[in-house]
Amino acid sequence: MVKRGFKYFLLLTVVLVLAACSSDENVDEAAGGEGSTEEGAGGTINIGMSEDMVTVDPHGSNDSASAQIRRNIYESLIFQDEALELTPGLATEWEATEDNVWNFKLREGTTFHSGQEFTAADVKATIDRVNDPAVASQVAFLYEMIEEVEIVGDYEVNLHTEYAFAPLPAHLSHNAGGIMSKDLIDRDYQAALDEAGSDVTLEEYYELREEGGEEFQAVADEISEHIGSVTGAETDGTNHLQLADRSPGDSVTLSRFDDFQNGEREFDEVIFRVIPETQARLAELDTGGIDIANEIDTASAERIQNGDATELIESESVRMNYLGFNMEKEPFDDPLVRQAIAHAVDRDEIINGVYDGYGITAQSPLAPDVWGYDEGLESIDVDVERAKELLSESSQPDGFKTTLWVNDDAAIVDSAVYIQNALSEIGITVEVQQSEWGAFLDQTANGEHDMFILGWTTVTADADYGLYALFHSKNFGAPGNRSFYKNEEVDTLLDEGRTNPDEAGRQDAYSEVQQILIDDSPAVYLNHTSFLLGVNTDGVSNIGLDPVGNIRLENASFSTEEE
């Protein structure tokens, strides 16, 4: 086991490349009203978030902070419960009527926050938008196989896919599948057309999009930079909360939607406050300034557990942290170099020394709770002598100097320092470079890095989402493949896994591809860390936390004050 002291000493060797950081101003100010002490009477739940959301537009980003907020505003066709099982959402039932056709029956009697009725037209408008090249959505890979949304009736649609796509229901449960009203989408497109000075009408644009071709592409290119001006500022969903106010960098306020048709809620308002510093979030939690604190670091877990009015909630996760290599740069195009590094990194020491034992070491890119995981895979073991042997046989027999890029997450930085120390034992000199989150994502998407550490959460709990974005050669850069890994056999197996309607056949494909990814080592799969949440029990109770890291407020209530 690594002693915790090692990382503080070694942090002195980290080279910081700091970009603009989120402001910590006003983190000590209480936001909003206090929760009622009478259970069920309503009130405000204050949540301290480590990061600000990027946008309220479901198609505008794929970050966890935005997803946490958007999932309370928008309902998807299919929900995931707290155990990540698929359950009815805006679709009451669904089935594959043909290999490439899925039928969905829609919930009736549902209204948007604007008061408009939810119908099949809103489903079509939402899915057509996410796949529109003018939108250039980072989450389009989730739905790109959908060729047509056929409106069968006001409350029924058929989704026609380019090929048989078995995990479609799981993909539709993703927060990016939140259904927006057609009215909101129409206004967003109209604003983009107006801003671009286009003489094409909204209806003409939709007709051009259906036809495709050069004329449509020209208009799409013309309006692309203006898309999202409305949907990034306003919302119109059907879920239990609606956007009341947003102050970027500070807070987002959501208020209860009284006409919500899918269950009762015992609170009136939820305020998500941006408090980047962990200790500031904990101080607010201790004093009741916030009711919930997200992304608790493991070093603070005991403090919350021992607090008189605080509770630690832990959930196993479907998140995988990994050490990635830029395979478009030497020497990481050499599999022997990658395998040497994989053998040199003791993943158990990172879990115990950095994460205090919260979580498990990764044996493959998939967490055990993800469908498609194979527990019988042969993982790479820790063997420093074997690592030295592989490096001596590689293109870099005498070792080399390189950089390891990280964001400003403390545990990731500590993991990087451990890796820096471990690789020095086999002759690799590593300089750790730290960047602010947004800059880090841009730089790694552009391929500016050598090595990097990042996490990926398999939100759909299906192997397709956990592997396709990260390792298919179609997804270089921002969609997920920041290793720029290309392997034709892997591409073929990943295509097989998503198109084969037979579950056993899918499992075989994913088992094979996982073993290749272990052996080929485009990344070192480090760990599946637990998600930790702090709750002030004097304020709220019945708070849930799922394996994706979502705070579940469905059953939240205010704690009864003791006499």
Automatic annotation (TrEMBL):
Signal peptide: 1-19
InterPro entries, per the entry: Peptide/Ni-bd (IPR030678), SBP_5 (IPR039424), SBP_5_dom (IPR000914)
Cellular component aspect of the GO annotation: ATP-binding cassette (ABC) transporter complex; periplasmic space
UniProt cross-references to Pfam families, sorted A to Z: SBP_bac_5
Keywords per UniProt: Signal, Transport
Segments forming domain Solute-binding protein family: 85-476
Protein name per UniProt: Peptide/nickel transport system substrate-binding protein
Organism of origin: Jeotgalicoccus coquinae
